[in-house]
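Thread: Newbie trying to understand structure tokens

Hi all, I'm a second-year student working on a class project, and my supervisor (Dr. K.) asked me to get a predicted structure for one chain before our next meeting. I've only ever worked with sequences, so writing a 3D structure as a token string is new to me. If someone could post the tokens and maybe explain what I'm looking at, I'd be very grateful. Here's the chain:
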Amino acid sequence: MSGFVFIINSILFGVGLAMDAFSVSMANGLHEPRMTHRKSLGIAMTFAIFQTIMPLLGYLAIHTIANTFKSFQKFIPYIALILLGYIGGKMLLEGIRRQDKEEESPALSYHELFIQGIATSIDALSVGFTIAEYAFAKALIESLIIGIVTFFICLSGLTIGKKFGTKLSSKASILGGVILMAIGLEIFITSFI
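---
Reply by user tm_fold:
Sure, no problem. This is what the structure looks like when written as tokens:
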């Protein structure tokens, strides 16, 4: 595979893997429309780090404990559904409780961000299967490209979410929660198709 094709493939992998993180970033922006630029960068970086690490973990699992990883893979959709359902449900309930009041949405906690990072990147573990024949350096480069693409896609999702979150006011948290739960369902359902 030529270097150009490798880079294009890595970028496309990054775009495909980042779509869940993009949607969750948008939901976070909706939930917290007055989020600082620094926090937005931190959220995008968190998703990028998870999307970089997960393919490498999959790669290492193939080269070390492949049978165990293959048996774990069937649980990935359930884990994503539970994690995103929990966070989305919590966000939805907060939005419903606050609907009559003019309260500010509570900020996204580090714990919730960590769970979102795992939930949106857990499917990237399986990318380790597709890059298993690569030398480690090449797998690392692909994972880094995936992470960089994820970072910029998540920043755009946060920007879009914050813009509409300001306009939607109290309904934004409800919409953000529904989006997160829908993403969890989508990951779960598409794993069986």
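A couple of things are worth pointing out once you decode it. The longest helix spans residues 136-168. The mean pLDDT is 82. Feel free to ask follow-ups in this thread.
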